[in-house]
Design a protein that fits this description.
The complex is a heterodimer.
Chain A (H helix, E strand, L loop, with lengths): L2 H15 L5 H5 L28 H10 L1 H6 L7 H14 L2 H5 L2 H10 L15 H16 L10 H5 L2 H14 L1 H4 L4 H19 L3 H5 L2 H7 L8 E4 L9 H5 L20 H5 L5 E4 L15
Antiparallel strand pairs in A: 1-2
Helix pairs in contact in A: 3-8, 7-12, 8-14, 10-12
Chain B lengths: L1 H21 L2 H9 L4 H4 L3
Classes of the chains: A mainly alpha, B mainly alpha.
Chain lengths: ~290, ~45
Amino acid sequence: MNLIKKRRLFQIFSTLGFNIYLPSFFKGKIFQGNIKGVCVPILNCHSCPSAIGACPIGSIQNSLATLKFNLSIASYQFGLYVIGVLGAVGSLVGRMPCGWLCPFGLLQEALYKIPSRKIHIPRFMSYGRYVVLVLFVFLLPLLVLDQYGFGQTWFCKWICPAGTLEAGIPLVILNEGIRSQVGLLFSWKMFVLILFLVWMVFAQRPFCRTTCPLGAIFGLFNKVSLFRMAVDDDKCIQCNTCYENCPVELKIYESPNSPDCVRCLKCVNSCQYGAIEYEFFPKKQPKKTTVQQS
Amino acid sequence: MKRRWAYVLFFIFILFTIIGLKFGEFAAALEKSITVCLNCIGIG
């Protein structure tokens, strides 16, 4: 089995695995087992009825939104648990979960297969995800507080299309109580979701590349993670086959460990010269022997 | 050199996780994740 098929299987099994409690869909309620406190390394809304883990971006926002209140009651919860999990995963494999595990990544790749005129995403738009991370995930939940000292989950509320798709739509359909409360905000979130879904048909992974705060966090680790990409300059003739196959339109020979790379390894598979490699643990270098002149 | 950084970062973040768990952050994450997030749905 080649890398492409292996990756597709990983994506499918991870989507099912992280959303395995399917009976919740029939009840119109969300899964509430104790395992749900475990933070997952993907953008998977924990209000999806069948989700069995906590969304890291939602959890970070919740920690920051309740920070002031928690400190006022001497509860020292800074969100270190979630940041620790993300950092540990990031320092091991960098942005690999985006390419191999994320259900929203799988959806984007599936929609891009729809035949249509394809468009490129300008490189500068990749900075958008850092703006979203700093502003909507860190600053606004931390600084904009109500009279009781509680903030809001700004990214979830105003942007996250994964939440609308995985949680909003199913719960609005299945739960009458929730359906009766639908208003303008839901319309806005549906608009954002449709915007991204249409964009996904015409461009490769637009959400990952321009908006996803989790991708922004993992991307920061690409340059230092244990899992690394490498290009052999002697073998690479810069034919751009890797660029044509890359879901984030990277020229990997220019920057093998770019923060934009989702480490899907399509480039490794497509390079007919074997110039692109990946390694996890360092290969042991053979000891150099010196010959003494007599 | 970069690999050494990866190990150092890994252990620092594991330490963060352990400290977070000690301060009861797992329970906090669980409490939030088993409650329907109205903001996520779009009716907050």
